[in-house]
């Protein structure tokens, strides 16, 4: 996956998490799941950048 696609996925996931956090508690399963997905994408991007 290219860096630009990763950045697009990160931004989309970030927006999703913001929308979910407006609708649900920050400790809800939906928000936490979205946050974990965002973390994975960011880590993938950082690992991609370091190689």
From TrEMBL:
Molecular function in Gene Ontology: protein dimerization activity
Pfam (any one): SpoOE-like
Domain of life of the source: Bacteria
GO biological process, one term: regulation of sporulation
Cited InterPro entries: HLH_DNA-bd_sf (IPR036638), Spo0E-like (IPR018540), Spo0E-like_sf (IPR037208)
Protein name: Spo0E family sporulation regulatory protein-aspartic acid phosphatase
Organism expressing this protein natively: Oceanobacillus arenosus
Lineage of source species: Bacteria, Bacillati, Bacillota, Bacilli, Bacillales
């Amino acid at each position: 996956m290219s860096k630009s696609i990763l950045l697009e996925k990160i931004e989309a996931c970030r927006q999703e998490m913001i929308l979910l956090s407006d609708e649900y508690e920050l400790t809800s399963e939906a928000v936490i799941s979205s946050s974990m997905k965002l973390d994975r994408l960011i880590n993938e991007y950082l690992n991609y950048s370091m190689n």
